């Protein structure tokens, strides 16, 4: 009975956050701190900071992984699962409904949708600037980002992102060991190492097996699951970086058009919760509710397996300079990947006139300099898109 009460408490708070957490990953971490640390005192400041450090270190949606970790601290593995469901379900439902309305009424060519596409330009540009400052602090990091950008633009294949990330990791292993500050903090988490090993084994097993199954069994749902799983497993840097991975997976093969892709990305800025739920929109465009739910499960599954798999080993892992150096280099490469995606398809297909460029500049200033919230930028973008042709 106590366990059920704890799980209900977790899902109730997580759902409240799922309906109200606008503003992206950084804002989410602030909401979590206010709710779980300051108000309900489920964990102390040091434990929360350490959990955030772990989730920034791992690939995947950092804020969602922090949310899962807090659920695990409070209620074990089931706590992590219900915390994820509560935080994620509101935006998943909103984006699936939006995708079905889009399919039903074919509204992707309206002015409001064009406005949402311009919002996508603004949001990604802001993300690039912020990430560039943080992840490319030195000239060597900037060179890695530039090489990644060149490779992604000139060699656009299914494996480009994987090769860029692996190459960056090897460079990091060799040259970035001294860039890491050690820490001896520990997390008050109790997961067995057996659970961790099983989770990590399953993570890598699926990462390598799914592409093979995709080739052997020509089924759309297997191809979808593989694309979303690999995107969720290879994202370093947060929700905005999933954009280029998903775009490469679904637009060139014809799963959806660039117009549909950018329309959904603009809409994803308007809903609370994690940006990874953009996958629910893509899945729903392809296969309605079942596709949206399958896409959500597939893209978040790596995050679950990694958080379960690394928590018991976090102390040893975070103090390993060699391993952490690889992630420093990978994070720099992510900046280049994001710039490439910003140019193609976002900029090329959206900023096609002086009017659209001017409107994008205004929205960017309102977001960055006037500090308007992201949801208000989305509303202004939709309204401006309607008025732009006039």
Q: Radius of gyration over alpha carbons?
A: 20 Å
- Structural class of the helices, strands and pairings? mainly alpha
Uncertain runs are none
Order of helices and strands: HHHHHHHHHHHHHHHH
The helix content, as a percent range, equals over 70%
Structure description:
- The chain has 390 residues and is mainly α.
- Helix content is 78%, strand content 0%.
- The protein has a domain at 113-180 and 193-387.
- The protein is built from 16 helices and no strands.
- The longest helix has 44 residues, at 62-105.
What would the keywords be for this entry?
mainly alpha; 16 helices; globular; Chromate_transpt; transmembrane helix; Chromate transporter; transmembrane
Give the helix/strand layout:
Blueprint lengths: L1 H19 L4 H15 L5 H13 L4 H44 L5 H25 L3 H16 L5 H16 L17 H24 L3 H15 L7 H9 L7 H11 L9 H33 L3 H5 L2 H30 L3 H15 L5 H14 L3
Helix pairs in contact: 1-4, 2-4, 3-4, 4-12, 5-11, 5-14, 5-15, 5-16, 6-7, 6-14, 7-14, 8-9, 8-12, 9-10, 9-12, 11-12, 15-16
Family: Belongs to the chromate ion transporter (CHR) (TC 2.A.51) family.
GO molecular function: chromate transmembrane transporter activity
GO cellular component, one term: plasma membrane
What would a concise description of this structure say?
It holds the Pfam family Chromate_transp. The chain is 78% helix and 0% strand.
